[in-house]
Specification:
Length: about 120
C-alpha cells in the first residue's frame, strides 16, 4: 500500500514559478514509477512527468524545458519544479504511483495509487 499527499499548489501570475511536493509513505521503494498528472475542468487527466522505475524521466511536450521532476530519497518526496508558468497550466495536480503502469506512462488508468491533488492557478 502506498499513501501520497501533495502540497505546494497556489496562485501565481503568468511567468511565475511554483514547486509541488508529494510525500510518499508505505511501500515506495525504487521499483515504483512516480508521476505527476493534472486535470482541469472538462478535460481528461493528463500526464505531466514521470520517473520510471528504471530511473528514466519523461515529460509531456507541453511542459518540456519548463518543468522538472525529481525525487528526494532522503525525504521520501516526489517534487515538481514549475517555471515560466502559463494560464494553460492551471489545473488540479496529482501525484501517482504504480509498480507496473501501462506502456504509455501518461495513461492515468495505469496507476493504482493517487494523492488528493493540489490546485495550481496561473493568471494572465
Amino acid at each position: 500500500q502506498v499513501h501520497l499527499v501533495e502540497s505546494g499548489g497556489g496562485s501565481v501570475q503568468s511567468g511565475g514559478s511554483l514547486r509541488l511536493s508529494c510525500a510518499l509513505s508505505g511501500h515506495t521503494d525504487s521499483r515504483y514509477c512516480l508521476a505527476w498528472f493534472r486535470q482541469s475542468p472538462g478535460k481528461e487527466r493528463e500526464g505531466v512527468a514521470v520517473i520510471n522505475n528504471d530511473g528514466t524521466i519523461n515529460y509531456a511536450d507541453s511542459v518540456k524545458g519548463r518543468f522538472t521532476i525529481s525525487q528526494d530519497i532522503s525525504k521520501n518526496t516526489l517534487n515538481l519544479e514549475m517555471n515560466n508558468l502559463k494560464p494553460e497550466d492551471t489545473a488540479m495536480y496529482y501525484c501517482a504511483a504504480d509498480r507496473h503502469p501501462l506502456a504509455n506512462w501518461n495513461d492515468a488508468s495505469g496507476y493504482n495509487y493517487w494523492g488528493q491533488g493540489t490546485q495550481v492557478t496561473v493568471s494572465s
